[in-house]
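Bug #77: duplicate submission created two jobs. Keeping one. Sequence:
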Amino acid sequence: MAEAGFSFLGDVASYEVGASWVVFDCGGPKLRVAAVAPKIVRVTLAPDGVFREESYAVARRGEARVEVEDRGDAVEVRTPALRVVVSKTPCRLAFYDAEGRYVCANHPLGMGWAPSKWEGHRVKCWMKLELDDRFYGLGEKALPLDRRRARVTMWNTDAFGYRLGTDPLYMSVPFFIVLRRGLAYGVFFDNPYRSVFDLGHSSEEWYSFEAEGGQLDFYVIYGPSVKEVVEGYTELTGRTPLPPLWSLGHQQSRYSYYPQERVLEVAERYRREGLPCDAIYLDIHYMDGYRLFTWDRKRFPDPRGMAEKLRSMGFRLVAIVDVGIKLDPLYPAFREGVLGDYFVKKPNGDLYVGRVWPGLCAFPDFTKPEVREWWGRQLKALVDEGVEGIWLDMNEPSVFDVPTKTVDEDAVHAGGPHAKVHNVYALLEAQATYEGLLKLRPNRRPFILTRAGFAGSQRYAAKWTGDNTSDWEHLWLQIPMLLSLGLSGVPFVGADVGGFFGRPTAELLVRWYQVAAFTPLCRNHQCMGSYDHEPWFHGGFAKEAVRGVLELRYRLLPYIYSLFYEHYAKGYPVMRPLLFEFPDDEETYAIDDEFMLGPFLLVAPVLKGGARSREVYLPRGRWYDFWSDEAYDGPARVRAEAPLDRVPLFVRGGAVVPMWPPMSYVGERKPDPLYLHVYPGDGSFALYEDDGETLDYTKGVYALTKFQVSERDGELTLRKSPREGGYEPGREFVIVVLHGAGSVVKALKDGSELKPLASPEEEREGVTRVEGKPAVKLREAKEGWELKILMK
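Kept job's structure:
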């Protein structure tokens, strides 16, 4: 049944063929089918016959040659991986893989358009909904992992105190993945206007996506695996550069630490307690009257000296930056913005003004390149005082005292009305901040944390999930939220540990840390007026439980950092739903209370108050309890014991998990030796290392070491490939720790038997024990080797 107000694509009158595209003329309206890669096809509808090339999200758009065959009633457009069948009467699309396996197709409604008050048209696409289609992604949504039957809106919103089902939230990523019996494809709707995705909410026959303006411009990204879909999507919209290594440590924030003495007091308490931490945040009270890029010299008389003191203790300083520029003729940033015509305007040309923390404010127009450059220069006032990270907040953009909570939709940017720019405003601010920091600190990796964003924001910033609350529902909710962001190309994600609002009990805080220690971003944050919940707040057993899991995170940093490299190289998320690693296991499709950290670690946190055990689903294969080395064969559901100081954690057979010695902050000590924890089975892992600070890795100054493990009839073989890259790790020894095994009968390195050591501290190669487990100590070397171990 046709939807009221829409015109629909009619019959194909003619078509034109190019090297990588075909344009179909449907009696005025035109449809372009273009191959940007063998597995990625772009579809663009131009109701007026004019295609507009504009995208804030796409970082790299290539071309792939197509073959075209006219079959009479349809035209087939082929890439090496996909076949797009374009029916002529009427014009509708169906996608198949190269072997003819069905992928997806238009519903009979097809594609349509309607009048819009904005540029272009209101546009909509209907696709067939298959009985067993599951939907994932769509960025930041307060929903379970599987989005089927959801209807969600993309419109960045300051969602203060959101709950399960609140929509929309802070960040918009108009990309989703469909998974059906192990076959996956993705759809990226490249349109910045307010958009709506109806994933079987209104019909069991179709799903749809639509926008209030612009053009219908979307990409179908074929897998067939979920991994390949995510890899293709991030190739299109960009990947996160390697972050500074310190940003993967534990971070401490609150609204607000001030004055200066209080900031140092918190840092000193961390070191006195021996709790790991790498960063401390300043919220808005460091500013002079909430004016951006200023310091309150009464509260912070010597920020540079404070930053140097923090640095001497192993802390980095991160400062908040909002977007509202206070209306104050004596304030340099406002004065420069007015003189340079840098601010958003009303339709009549007057300055748009909205109320935020400083009072009445103007808002930078980040669609102008000169404004982005100006913004980047303003950061000098922070960088010169020792700030090493920037925290972008209120950048939906949020405006107080108006029903919409944001800038008027008809406000004017150089790039169009705010209705068009709203969802990409934070993306452009993050770009300006990233590029500004690179100029101010050449060859130093920026660390930026943002609340709002759009597809492509991952190129510039990490993301946290906004103003959550201190309750068990939010503890669970962060898992599907973070997993969905990872599937949506945003890997560096986390939630406020303990909840932003409220008072976490000792139990809740411990359980929250037992999740956050395995999420890409691990940051404790709390609201002004709320109770403190630094790790020591509850004291006693709770503090020691938090210490234990934070120490484990720091030991795992070489593994976690290698996962960030894997994202940089392939686009994979660091934190993954089980379905990402086990797409053929339909039992994993709805699991959102467990997750994978990389390919090997399965985390099954306790998410209910009072629970001291939980059921855990283990997919196919051999699994080992991290704490006891007890082996399990999946698929299976097992009962895992979970006293308050233990999180259920399982390791996949065939794992190679690199670990460091414990430390209180990144760089506290030289991580020598490196421990390689090996679990029997077949598997491989690539250990990535570099200096953790500079951009030299982009010039080949890195170390990539590939390990492969196999097990046959009681003999375990670990092969190390020659180290790639020009970085020298600078350690002397590697200790291979063997799990799930009894004792070593014989160990041979490249055919030569290794002798027993009196202790692991001996400065030579040999067989030893570490923490009660059999181990082999080897010298670090650039060359490859083969280690064969006979076990009993």
